[in-house]
Amino acid sequence: MHDTRFTQFFDGGHEPDIAILGGKCASLVSMTAAGMPVPPGFAVTTAAYDEFVRSTGLDATIHRLLATLDPADVVHLDAVAAEIRNEICSLPVPDDLRGQVGLAYHDLMERFGCDVPVAVRSSATAEDLPHASFAGQQDTYLWISGVDQVCDHIRQCWASLFTSRAISYRLEHGIPDEGLSMAVGVQKMVNARVSGVAITMNPATGDRSKIMIDAAYGVGEMVVSGQVTPDNIMLDKVMMTVVSERLGDKHAELVPHWSAQRLVEREVDRDRRSRRCLTDAEVVAVAAMAKRAEQHYCCPQDVEWAIDADLPDGENLLLLQSRAETVHSARPVAFPVVAKTGFSFGDLSFLAPAASTAGGTLPSHEHLGTR
Asked: Would you tell me which CATH number, out of the four given (2.40.50.140, 3.55.10.10, 3.40.50.620, 3.30.470.20), belongs to the domain 192-355?
């Protein structure tokens, strides 16, 4: 029997409570309920993390170690961060929690009729907030298979609450560690043909009459690492017409290697390099989806998306994540919110997590751009 204290499906009708689901999973639940094309999956709630650290005695250890921190002593901060992560990763997930994750994982696999790889995505209670951007500070792992691997990588996501970067960010912004927790999302992966980010304003100027799209072939890790430069397209938000575009150097892509169950780098042929990786119709579709997310949240959004190579046109555009844009959003709006477009999508069932780590070997920034 499912214990919804510990696992909740995105389409399970639960409230998008950040305290229970963390910022990322709460957003995925909210967008799923709004009928947006969010791939299926479930959240391992903050109650699971809280039970893990309580039952193992780690809560007291973490509190003691954090209390010794001197923000100016970078060497000591790094040592404390490493010690906390090692403590978390050295302890097994309790049997009752592992059992609940196993039930939810089994139910997710039944939707596809076979075992399929998943992404395991961090969702901290202090991330994706209107006043703070934690993008890339916690871990996401790709191409994970089986309950044992899922549980191991859930624990690694928990540990990423305590990277040096995450601890420093919380100290710098006055975000207390008391009450800090993390949920973890588990979602099916996708064969990503193109992926990218769409921001519902001009991020350089804050002009809210524009939508900016960055797009590149395959999964977005090579964009994050700077190995490829994406296509950059600017649209008028009302007319949905392209006002400027710049082709990027898309010489390589990361694509699934199905038999090896990992991502591999593949050279992009000259013909594909020389043209935009999105068609005109796909550009408009991405922009329309970004507008829909903005209307849902009533503020400018930073949207992660992907196009699934295995799904038909009209059903292959997936909304992976939507966050409030944090650089210009606090400034006064100079023009009214755009009316709804009426753009809709079919029932989708695949995930292309943006820039992360294949096979769980090395964690990486999840977001496709920088802020």
From this structure: 3.30.470.20
